[in-house]
TrEMBL record:
GO terms for molecular function: transcription coregulator activity. One of its GO terms (biological process) is regulation of transcription by RNA polymerase II. InterPro entries: Med22 (IPR009332). The keyword Ligase does not apply. It is found in: Nucleus. Keywords: Nucleus, Transcription, Transcription regulation. Its main location: nucleus. GO terms for cellular component: mediator complex. This is Mediator of RNA polymerase II transcription subunit 22.
Amino acid sequence: MMEMRAARMVQAADSLLKLVSELKQTAIFSGFASLNDHVEQRSTEFNQQAERTDRMLARIGEEAAASLKELESHYYSSAQRTPDTA
């Protein structure tokens, strides 16, 4: 009787250990899935930020080129410009 009870307790303990192990694995995989989702979300955000930055840099480059052309025009039409000595 005592041996049977001990065997059942060992079986119950073994089942409990297996359940704890499965719960740990589930928690770990769930954590990885959550982490992957977060990484994908951040990656998307960074890609969007990179696109906005590229557009901003292109606009700044266009504005700088236009300003440079305007300054060149003023320079070449300026009466203060020193004559070329060639």
